[in-house]
């Protein structure tokens, strides 16, 4: 079963705030798959997520770093597959172990390594609408993420924000 939530973000800060909410609700083993073109807001959302997880210092890595680890109330594994040219190349990198590492795994350009996708995950598609506007569609696959989405909805209705 898949449950979806469609949002509009009107600023980088709103996108970060969505990430922050997710970070607060995250549980060990969670996997968030991010898709969207260059500049869609994947890293911005991840910054918020790090904040929500209580990561003290989020330093933006050089783009050639494939996986960054951060220490929050649980580890955050941030993968960026932009530089990965083929699924074969991705398969050789041994990325699977992160998904079972007891932290939260966030994968930018997740569509480049669909073999990595676990049975349950939260898919977050960011679409560029205008310079400051993004459409963000969250799809929960599996019971863990359907529950997460319920909690997220509740947070939105509580503070009345759109994203
Ligand atoms: N509503 C919005 N949400 C997110 N970012 C926005 C928004 N409006 C404008 N921006 C700008 O768009 C850019 C998003 O950059 P970001 O690095 O988060 O994208 P990305 O998807 O990670 O790109 P890349 O594929 O290059 O890694 C930033 O410069 C940010 O300020
Ligand atoms: Mg990025």
What can you see in these coordinates?
The chain is α/β, with parallel strands linked by helices. It has one domain: P-loop containing nucleotide triphosphate hydrolases (Rossmann fold, 3-Layer(aba) Sandwich). The protein contains 5 helices and 7 strands; from the N terminus they run βαβαββααβββα. A 7-stranded mixed beta sheet has the order 1-7-6-2-5-4-3. Strand 6 and strand 7 form a beta hairpin. It is globular and about 45 Å long. The relative contact order is 0.26. Adenosine-5'-triphosphate binds next to helix 1, helix 2 and strand 7.
Order of helices and strands: EHEHEEHHEEEH
Q: Which class in CATH terms?
A: Alpha Beta
Number of domains: 1
Rounded Rg: 15 Å
Class from helix and strand fractions? alpha/beta
What spatial form do the alpha-carbon principal axes imply? globular
Low-confidence stretches: none
Outline the biggest β-sheet: 7 strands, mixed
Task: Give me the number of helical elements.
Answer: 5
CATH superfamily: P-loop containing nucleotide triphosphate hydrolases
CATH level-3 fold name: Rossmann fold
Distance between the termini: 24 Å
Helix proportion of residues, in percent?
25-40%
């Amino acid at each position: 079963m898949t449950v979806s939530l469609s949002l509009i973000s009107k600023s980088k800060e709103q996108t970060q705030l969505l990430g922050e909410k997710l970070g607060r609700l995250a549980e060990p083993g969670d996997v968030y798959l991010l898709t969207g073109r260059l500049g869609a807001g994947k890293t911005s959302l991840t910054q918020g997520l790090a904040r929500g997880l209580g990561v003290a210092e989020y330093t933006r890595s050089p783009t050639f770093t494939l996986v960054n680890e951060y220490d929050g109330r649980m580890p955050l594994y941030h993968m960026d597959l932009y530089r990965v040219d083929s699924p074969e190349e991705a398969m050789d990198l041994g990325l699977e172990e992160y998904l079972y590492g007891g932290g939260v795994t966030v994968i930018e350009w997740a569509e480049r390594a669909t073999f990595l996708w676990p049975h349950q995950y939260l898919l977050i598609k960011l679409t560029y609408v205008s310079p400051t506007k993004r459409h963000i569609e969250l799809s929960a696959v599996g019971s863990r993420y359907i529950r997460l989405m319920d909690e997220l909805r509740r947070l939105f209705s509580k503070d009345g924000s759109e994203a």
